[in-house]
Amino acid sequence: MKKLPLLLFLLAPFFATAQIKDRLDSERKWFMPDHLKLQFAGNIGFLSGGPGYISNNKTLETDLLFGFLPQKFGGDGLFSTTLKTTYSPWSIPLKNSYYIKPFSIGFYLSYTFGKQFDTKLPSHYPVGYYWWATSFRPGAYIGGKLGKDLVVNKRQRSLEMYYELGTYDLLLISYVQNTGYLRPSDIVNLAIGLRYGF
Amino acid sequence: MKNFPKALLLALGMTLTACEGVFQYNPNQVIFKDSETNLNQKNIERIQAIPLKDTVRFILMGDTQRWYDETDAFIESANNQKDVAFVLHAGDISDFGLSQEFKWVNEILVKLKCPYLTVIGNHDLVANGPAAYRKIYGPMDYSFEYGHNKFIFINTNSREYVFNGEVPNLNWLQSQLADNRDNKNAIVVAHIPPFDGDFDPKLQDGYAGLLANDPNVKFSLYGHQHTFRDGDFYEDGVHYYLTTSTGERGYWLFTTWKGGYKAEKIEY
After folding, report:
1. Does B247 touch chain A (CB under 8 A)?
2. Which of A45, A96, A101, B102 is surrounded by the most beta carbons within 10 Å?
3. pTM for this entry
4. Pair B156, B225: CB distance under 8 Å
5. Distance between CA atoms of A77 and A70, rounded to whole angstroms?
């Protein structure tokens, strides 16, 4: 059971690649993902990656990412899985099939695996002793993207780079109650990522 | 090209060290700068380098959890007290057990004119808190001597260990009290006092008995209840002091000398 997250994490891109090949020969099935993402940082793993979908009007993306923070970089090996949704209302075309999406806003819910984390308060605590779950963290971010339309194997593809400035519930609460000492920059951190659309 | 993923990871690793804090990987990460590790031992060495006087003055404060504005205000009050050798933090440094919170509290407490020491609180044991505490402060049970005093810090957060009978570690406490040939004042510091519901009821009598049966123990120090309390609660000659939370803007100022002490309640 402990190895399940690792397995999911390692296999996610593999499945996705298999699906790309499948689609070359047939019409796209509704459940096929529209893109793959690879993200660095952002409180959902040192690196995280996985498949996602985009709405028909190309403004709303929803992703399922599997993340890992190696012991080497975090003092503790942590696996997590994250459901993420990003809304980018505007796309501005530039020269040479480049485009920018100047503004994105999004939310995520992340789950970190580990027996030290709980979703429900264990019964040896009185009701409400700790009011937050330690395994799930909801967070929010704003950001932007730079993309380029590509043609790969005679098919329309896109490659995007994005950045996100985000925070999560526990840091936000800390800030709101301590505006004298904490500054917004104390609770905001940066994530950068790649999105390959197909 | 074969080494590309390795090179990418290395590049990211270098970015990590260059942009400390800009990137965060998991709320439960345990990442600290070198200047943020093993602080209790480092601060003990600083305390022991302070020239001895006839009296030793120190502050007992605690429960800084999610009260950064108030902790910042504490610094000014504490720095205005004369001849304070060190500050004792009675636990609940963090609220959610996050490394980020330990870092914030340390950032504030390093503005003290004197070193500070901590004992672990129940909130510091939440989620990855134990790993974070060990990294930034060190072992959860430890002791040091300065002047006429021997300070013994012990983890008394029994509920976090499902009252398994091992926390607090009474054998360790007994050996620490016994190892006191010069009969220094033995001052036991912990987060949860023995008469609190979060202290293992099976260990309460044993714990209080160890303190009562040691003639070197005159008083003992705690936090957790977020209110000032003091008294000889077991009528056994040991005076228990509880400090209020930092959110309540108060602390105890102790002055100790050979064979005696004085406690003053300070509000700011």
Report:
1. no
2. A45
3. 0.90
4. no
5. 5
Tokens standing for residue A160: 């995007």
Amino acid B81 reads: Q
CA distances from A136 to A62, A139, B59 (A): 18, 10, 37
| Cα distances (Å, whole numbers) of residue A67 to A8, A77, A122, B92, B120 | 10, 11, 26, 30, 30
H/E stretch holding B134: helix B129-136
Separation CA B80–CA A167 (nearest Å): 36
Query: With an 8 Å Cβ cutoff, are B96 and A41 in contact?
Result: no
Q: What is the pLDDT of residues B183-194, one digit of tens each?
A: 999 999 999 999
B151-184 b/e with 16+ CB inside 10 Å = b?
Answer: bbbbbbbbbbeebeeebbbbeebeebbeebeeeb
Mean pLDDT by 10 residues, chain A (198 residues): 48 48 56 95 97 96 98 89 98 96 98 96 94 97 97 92 98 97 97 96
Interface A-B: count of C-beta contacts within 8 A = 114
Interstrand relation of B185-189 and B219-222 (parallel, antiparallel or unpaired): parallel
Compute the nearest-CA separation of A53 from chain B (Å). Answer: 24
* Spatial separation of the C-alpha atoms in residues A10 and A50, rounded to whole Å: 10
- Among the partner residues B21, B30, B162, nearest to A76 by beta-carbon distance: B30
The maximal CA–CA distance of chain A, rounded, in angstroms, is 62
Residue B54 has pLDDT above 70, yes or no: yes
For residues B9 and A40, give the distance between their C-alpha atoms in angstroms, rounded to a whole number: 10
Output B211-215 pairs: Cβ under 8 A, ≥24 positions apart: B211/B177, B211/B236, B211/B238, B212/B236, B212/B237, B212/B238, B214/B177, B214/B186, B215/B183
Interface contact flag, A171 B100, Cβ < 8 Å = yes
* Backbone dihedral angles phi then psi of residue B191, each to the nearest 5 degrees: -85, -55
CB burial class (10 A; 0-12, 13-18, 19+) of residue B52?
exposed
**CB–CB of A67 and B26 under 8 A?**
yes
